Structures are given as structure tokens and as C-alpha cells.
Amino acid sequence: MISNMGIVSLCIVLLLGSEICIAARQELIVTTIKQDPYTMSKGSQLEGYCMDLLTELAKKLGFKYKVHLVKDGAYGRQDESGNWNGMIGEVVRGEADLAVAPLTLTAAREKAVGMTKPYMQTGISILLRKDIVSEEAGFFDFLSPFSGETWFGVLIAYFVTAVCICIVGRLSPCEWSQPETEPNHFTLLHSLWYAAGALSLQGAGPHPKAVSGRVISCTWWLFAVVLLACYFSSLSSSQGPDSAPLMIKGFEDLANQDVIEYGTLAGSSTLAFFKNSNNPSYRRIYEHMERRKSFVSSMDEGVQRAKEGNYAFIGESVSLDLAVARHCELVRAHEVIGMRGYSIVTPLGSPMLKNLSVAILQLSEAGELAYLRTKWWASSCILDSAKGSSLRAHSMKGIFLVLAIGLGIGVLLSLFELTSKSRSTAGEQKKSCCAVLTQELSQRLRMTNTKGDQETSDKNKA
């Protein structure tokens, strides 16, 4: 393969005395720029997404390479006289054979250099601090302090507690001393109402008189107090007064407000997109940035200004995703416009262009590009987001455990009270304690009222 990339000329004198120069392959000179996570310093070496991509391409195409950082620290912009700077300029002038970096595929660059098939798709989006973006309130936002598992656990705890109160109200002789003649106050419906009243801190009588019933009531009151304290604490933190009333979902919202300053990278393709757009909103954004001179000189500067607050940085969506992954206080807007791709740059007309494009497609089909994206865009906020603002069931397992223990103790105490009465009655009637206890349980656990049955029977006899 004969090309002007990475070659030296070897002159051979033929028999006719004429001199012909042929090309011999040498290692390729690759230019790049430092940008996390595409290219980063690691001691005297370079690492990152682009370096891994370059290694995979070298393996597939069988070439050697030498990497250096672009001298002027620029990506590539054409001035008024038509000259290019940055990595594009180095490739155009023959100072480099390849440019491997997050270089956006544009029409102007395509005229000056060769650009491969995109190895990564991106677009334009907005980076802001989380606390200056308020989301639209939903109908059920009042449920947000607790997760679905927690609400389900509270519902189960409510029904189980009501059933336990009903059981204790039937078993304990202190609550229902004469099943044959007295009505039972703690029916299932009243138990449900009593538990609901305690949960809302309002109370609903009559209250339990037996020790077993009071143990269950105190445990349920404690559960209700802790539950409500956690709910209101989480609700106030998620809807605090420091959250701004401003809502920014996309570029239309950004263009229609003057509270938050915004800007983009000076001389970037993102700026050119807004400058050349016919969309009225995009034109207003460009005119605002041009009037305020709210540009930044680097990606890091844009991220830092966004972190400081009251500034929205407009940039490539994949770069903004990385900033969100590294800085948990930042968030990227959902809207992405101007979809484009990152490509590798070669000299215009280079025979390597097609081979590089094919190799990039092969890496994409094999899942290698997706793997590299996952590797270098790993989020440090995963653990923080897993905690979330919703209080999950496992974070309240202590109070659920206390409630379960209290319910168990209450039911056991009611059985002990009934057994103690049965033993006393068995001594008076000279009967077996087990027989008396069985009779008591049979009377107390009937679903119908014994007194009502007795009155019905007397009426039938009359």
C-alpha cells in the first residue's frame, strides 16, 4: 500500500540510470488531545477510550503507531484565511498520519480531511446542577418519601396489627370477661378503625384494658410515631425551600429564561451548530452566548462552572454523561439535538480510510465499542443513586421487627391471661384445666356473638 502516511522514500538506481522512489511503511504518527476519558496521562503513558480503540484498530489492521499530544491543544478550526489549527491542521499539514480523539464529523472537516465511520454517536445537550432544576410535580409525589416496598410493608403491618388487636380482645378475660353475656367491643372492624386512628395520631376508643392489649397498642403507637417522623423528614428534604422554581427540560426552556447563564466551548462544532441553525430558539441561544461572551475555553471549565451553579453548559451529550457520572451534583437534560458522530481523521484521499471504517464497524458489531463505553464511563454515583430519596423497606427493618415482637408478646400475654383464668375456673368447678381452656377458646373464637345467639334461641322458644 503506497500512501503519504508514515512513509520514507527509498531511491533505487535502475539499469537505465534513472532514479525511481518507492514507498516503505514506517510507524504511523497519531495526534490526540487530552480529554477525560478519551485520552489521559498515566505516568509517561497515555490511556483512555481512544487509546484502547487505537490498540484494537492496530491489531486488526497490523500497523504500528506513535502517539503525541496536539501542540496547540485545539481540536481543529478553520480561520478566515482557510487554515486549520489543532489536530485537523496537523493532519492537513502532514505532521500526523491519524487524529484519534473525540472529533465531530462535520461538513467543513470532511472537505479538508478524510473521516471514518463514526465510532461513537453523540449529540448536543445541557449540563446543570440538580438543585437549580425542579421537575414537574406529579399527582402522587406525596408517596415519594417511601418506596413501593415500604408502603406495602406498612399496609401489611396495619392489617396484621388490627387482626392481633381483635384476637387479643377475644382471648383476654380482662377485655371480654363473660363471652356468654357481654358483647365483644374489639370486633375486626373496630380493630381496623382503632389501628387507623393510632396511625394518624388521633386515637379511637375504647382503648384496651388488658396488659396484652396495651402492649400491642404501645408497640403500634411507637411504630406510627417513627413511621410519620421518617415520612415527614424525607418529604421535607425532597421538597426543600432551596430548590429553585425554575424548570428546564430542554433548549426551548433555556432560551426563554434569563435567570441561568449558559454557554458552550469556544470554536467548537456545537457553537457552529447554533450559529448556522435556522431554528428561532437555537438562534436566540447563539445570540445570547455571543452577546454575553459566555463561552468556555475547555470542557473542564464548562463542567466546573456548571458545578458552581447558575450556569448551564451546552456540549456533546457523551461528554456530559461522563461529567454526570463523575460529579453527582450534576444532571444532563433529556433533550438531545443535532445528532452526530465522533470519527477518526486521516489525510484527504488516504487509502487507509476505508480499512479503518470497516474495522470500526467490525468492533461495533462484536460489542467491543459498547464494552469500551461501559469501561470508561463507569459512574461513581451508582451507590448514591441506589440509596435514593425513597426510604426503602430494608432501611426501616428495625421498627418492623419491634412491631412484630410487640405483636407476638401481646398475643402470648393474652393466652397466658386466658390460661390463668381457666386454671382458676377449673379449680372452682373441679374440672380439667385443658377442658375448661378448650371450652373458653371455643366460645371466644366464634365469629358470631354468643349473646346474640342466646337471645335468638330464647325468642324461638317463646
TrEMBL record:
GO terms for molecular function: ligand-gated monoatomic ion channel activity; signaling receptor activity. Belongs to the glutamate-gated ion channel (TC 1.A.10.1) family. GO terms for cellular component: postsynaptic membrane. This is Glutamate receptor. Residues 27-379 form the Ionotropic glutamate receptor C-terminal domain. Keywords: Cell membrane, Disulfide bond, Glycoprotein, Ion channel, Ion transport, Ligand-gated ion channel, Membrane, Postsynaptic cell membrane, Receptor, Signal, Synapse, Transmembrane, Transmembrane helix, Transport. L-glutamate binds at residues 102, 104, 109, 269-270, 316. Residues 1-23 form the signal peptide. The chain crosses the membrane at residues 398-416. It is found in: Postsynaptic cell membrane. It is a multi-pass membrane protein. Residues 37-93 form the Ionotropic glutamate receptor L-glutamate and glycine-binding domain. InterPro entries: Glu/Gly-bd, Iono_Glu_rcpt_met, Ionotropic_Glu_rcpt, Iontro_rcpt_C. It comes from the Eukaryota. The keyword Cell inner membrane does not apply. It holds the Pfam family Lig_chan. The keyword Ion transport applies. The record marks 248 as: Crucial to convey clamshell closure to channel opening. Disulfide bonds join 328-381. Receptor for glutamate that functions as a ligand-gated ion channel in the central nervous system and plays an important role in excitatory synaptic transmission. L-glutamate acts as an excitatory neurotransmitter at many synapses in the central nervous system. The record marks 275 as: Interaction with the cone snail toxin Con-ikot-ikot.
